[in-house]
Write a structure and sequence with these properties.
The complex is a heterodimer. Chain A is an alpha/beta fold. In chain A, 38% of the residues lie in helices and 22% in strands. Chain A has two domains: 162 residues, HUPs (Rossmann fold, 3-Layer(aba) Sandwich), CATH 3.40.50.620; 120 residues, Rossmann fold. Chain A has an eleven-stranded mixed sheet with strand order 3-4-2-1-5-6-11-10-7-8-9, with helices on both faces. In chain A, α3 links the parallel β3 and β4. The longest helix of chain A is centred in the N-terminal third of the chain and has 19 residues. The two termini of chain A are 13 Å apart. Chain B is α/β, with parallel strands linked by helices. Chain B folds into two domains: 111 residues, HUPs (Rossmann fold, 3-Layer(aba) Sandwich); 134 residues, 3-Layer(aba) Sandwich (Rossmann fold). Chain B has nine helices and twelve strands. An eleven-stranded mixed sheet of chain B has the order 3-2-1-4-6-12-11-7-8-10-9, with helices on both faces. Chain B is globular and about 65 Å long. The relative contact order of chain B is 0.15. Classes of the chains: A alpha/beta, B alpha/beta. β9 of chain A pairs parallel with β5 of chain B.
Chain lengths: 291, 275
């Protein structure tokens, strides 16, 4: 898995870093860390500018936070800056793994519009997952932009995890209404359940009749069996699509809401941009859009 | 050995019920009889009489047998050897009532997907089979490891049937037992919907005392006794903490029944007892 962690100097980005670090520790994903310098017209960082100093300090701090989560001797990651051996030695001397075999974590500072920068970097890296947090107290803003998380969620071609607060995730609610669910997305949910020791609820949406479409029911059956083989026992719940708003309103009981969004999905129709923006902005639970 | 009748359709709810029943069969001494009722799904008139009709009926039954056998085969890795499924042709409720009336079963097991809307649950509970069957009914919504059981004591007529059914079916299992007396109040927009829960050390009502005395017959005792007051929603959310809820069959089954409204919120298995 290729993971892009988008952070800014604000404290809420700690939550994104922690969540992404836990995922990396379990999956050994390829990790790219980025901050955005929201200054138009700048091609280079000005080390003397306070804003730029703050960005660089934040990057260093988040790199440290990432590596602090691992035992020095067993850390599977090194900084992708070429100083492989030096870092390996500084990590504790006893090299449990050859430096070339370790995963690299790259840090980047991109100048420009935050949304475009994140989406552009995700496309360039061919990221599977973008992780970011937002300021819940200020309408879920990121890097000073109120609509950035929602726009990234709506426009990204990969999965996006918006982390809300340092909230213990006790239950993960996964919503699907279509047949196309990828193996990697199932595995991502599996990892999140394992990391948080959370319960898992699989929600299927019915369209008015109260019954699932045959292919959706079959897919839910397959997904249920997949998780049961992993000794995870999901709760299955059926929600009529017309009750979606009321269902989502109850989300305060959850820790993470995951939506499988596809081109043909009912969820895509019932979650147009405006509703998605509202969900991202107002939800107290983290939101994971799976693609 | 307990005898359980397991109703199966070729759907997700039945797959869940089958898996749950197989799990129970491993931890309890229980024999499972799979059962399915098929009907003519076409809208055309039934063909002919005599051997033509019999051939057509046999074809329907054979098709249904293949579907149900296929469903059972998907769970064969976790299921004990099950009896060959009984397939009938007709109306499900009539055939089910006939089966549970004609033979002795300790338990009837059926699946029902947990829904956000209470409508499907209401329809199921109000069906003729549920009202007339004398057999305890285990309604399975999800496969959840059975560790905590709530016995709801009906304040008017309950206590004995719930505890006795629990003793007979579940009593031998190492589960935590909580005895709950529930007082339902209506949701009021102006009032807080906070749940009021009181843990009591000794039974305070006759119904609770009866339940405890019945449990003692099997040397069982509740781990906790709670008095709970709240709306159906809040009590339902509280009951979701349990892996099985044991309750007498609701006296009133209309849409306004607070017990049914509450139980519709619970994603765990429900064991409905008979007097």
């Amino acid at each position: 898995m290729k993971m892009l962690i988008a952070v800014d100097p604000n404290p809420y980005s700690d939550y994104a870093m922690d969540e992404a670090t836990a995922l990396a520790a379990n999956t050994w994903a390829m990790v790219n860390l980025m901050v955005v310098q929201p200054k138009t017209g700048y091609l280079h960082l000005n080390p003397e500018a306070d804003g730029d100093k703050e960005l660089q300090a934040a990057l260093v701090r988040y790199q440290g936070r990432f590596f602090d989560a691992f035992d020095k001797e067993d850390c599977p990651y090194i900084m992708g800056d070429g100083n492989d051996v030096q870092h390996a030695v500084q990590a504790g001397g006893a090299i449990g793994m050859a430096p070339v075999a370790r995963k690299r974590i790259f840090s980047r500072t991109i100048a420009g519009n935050p949304v475009k920068a994140v989406l552009g970097q995700a496309d360039e890296d061919q990221s599977d997952l973008i992780v970011l947090a937002c300021d819940q107290e200020k309408g879920c803003s990121w890097s000073g932009h109120l609509t950035a998380p929602a726009r990234i969620v709506n426009e990204a071609s990969c999965s996006v995890l918006v982390v809300k607060n340092e909230r213990k995730i006790k239950n993960i609610v996964c919503c699907m209404d279509q047949n196309t669910v990828t193996q990697s997305s199932l595995e991502l949910i599996n990892q999140l359940v394992t990391i948080h020791g959370a319960g898992l609820t699989l929600v299927g949406f019915s369209n008015g009749s109260g019954e699932l479409k045959t292919d959706v029911e079959q897919r839910m059956h397959d997904i249920l069996r997949y998780y049961q083989k992993l000794r995870i026992h999901p709760i299955v719940e059926i929600v009529d699509i017309a009750s979606l708003d009321a269902f989502v309103h109850q989300e305060k009981q959850w820790g993470l809401m995951a939506l499988w969004m596809g081109k043909q999905s009912l969820l895509g129709k019932w979650f147009p941009r405006s509703k998605m923006n509202k969900l991202i902005k107002e939800s107290r639970s983290s939101v994971l859009i799976l693609r | 050995m307990l005898k359980a009748l397991l109703y199966l359709n070729a759907d997700l709810a039945s797959s869940i019920a089958l898996r749950y029943a197989c799990h129970l069969a491993y931890v309890m001494d229980m024999e499972i009889t799979p059962f399915h009722v098929t009907s003519d799904r076409s809208e055309s008139r039934t063909p002919g009489t005599g051997w033509v009709r019999r051939t057509w009926e046999n074809g329907l039954i054979q098709q249904a047998r293949e579907e149900i056998t296929g469903l059972i085969q998907t769970e064969k890795m976790i299921c004990p050897e099950l009896k060959s499924p009984t397939i009938r042709l007709g109306k499900p409720e009539n055939e089910l009532l006939s089966e549970v009336s004609g033979r002795f079963y300790d338990l009837f097991i059926i699946g029902l997907l947990h829904t956000f809307s209470a409508r499907q649950f209401h329809e199921r509970i109000q069906s003729r089979f549920y009202r007339k069957s004398r057999c305890p009914i285990l309604l399975v919504k999800n496969v959840i490891d059975l560790k905590r059981v709530a016995i709801l004591v009906d304040p008017v007529r309950g206590g004995e049937s719930e505890a006795r059914t629990f003793n007979h079916l579940i009593g031998a299992l190492p589960v935590e037992i909580d005895l709950l007396s529930c007082v339902f109040r209506k949701a009021d927009n102006g009032r807080s919907e906070r749940l009021i829960q009181t843990r009591i050390s000794e039974p305070e009502t006759d119904r609770e005392s009866v339940a405890i005395n019945v449990l003692r017959e099997k040397r069982l005792a509740p781990d906790n006794i709670f008095r709970i007051e709240g709306t159906p929603d809040t009590i339902g959310a509280r009951l979701a903490d349990y892996h099985m809820v044991v309750t007498s069959f609701p006296g009133e089954t209309g849409p306004a029944s607070p017990l049914i409204e509450c139980l519709s919120r619970v994603p765990s298995a429900m064991l409905f007892c008979r007097d």
